[in-house]
Fold MoxR-like ATPase.
Amino acid sequence: MNRVPEDTGSIDGLTHALQGVGYHAPRRLATAVFLAMRLQRPLLLEGEPGVGKTELAKALAKVLGRPLLRLQCYDGMEQREALYEWNHTAQLLHMRAAQATSTPDEIEREVYQARYLIRRPLLQALQTPEPGAVLLIDEVDRADEPFEAFLLEYLGEYQVSIPELGTIQAVAAPLTILTSNRTRDLNDAVKRRCLYQWLDYPERERELAIVRSQVPQASTALTEQVTRFVSRLRNQPFANAFQRSPGIAESVEWAKALVALDTLTLDPEVIQDTAGILFKQREDVAALLPMLDKLLEPEPT
């Protein structure tokens, strides 16, 4: 069942609505989303993995009561996987059945009809009726430059061209969110068609609110310890020791794991046992262990 859309007619209303589904957006991010909706422009989100880029699209779909369509990008992605492909089996069956009664020109016109299209996320987003879809183009930096060039028509005009059918324009403008982990720079032509926002690791108070909303079973003391510990990992003098600092997703998963282990307070043993939730590289886990005593020291008053 779709969620009933909430009041998103102001930045404050949008911020409140997102908080209602567990997404705590800073004001600058809520402003960027509000403008993307008002101006009907795609929004490009860049930032480290785990800072909440993908989760924002999911939260917006819930808040706005729109279907979420996700296009997961990867190296070598082809247009047919993003836009459409023809149902060749159905076309072949129709051609065989029509051979006795139709001319070749008639058969060709009949097999290139919309009912033989297999719609992929971009075309689905354009053909979603009011109020439109939320389209997540996830990790666009993993795709290659030809795919970026293919996206330009959609991003700039909310339309696509299908040779056999012509130009297809949006029934209702999709709210389009592109995410990038910045493994490479995107083409300037893509960036010019989008509003832009960089997502950094959250301030501790915001992360504390996120963990509390996502892991309500955790005690107040434990959530404070988790967010303080993870915040220290991301800041000097500790941050340079790691290839990648834990994101919000890791903080939430770690808190869930600690609750499952009936943990009341952090200590070196439980951190060692669960370090694989915070870090996904052997070298990072190895770098963490000698630092535990310093990381667990009380903050100066």
User: Anything to note?
Assistant: Residues 84-119 form one domain. The CA atoms of residues 83 and 123 lie 5 Å apart. The first strand starts at residue 43 and ends at 47.
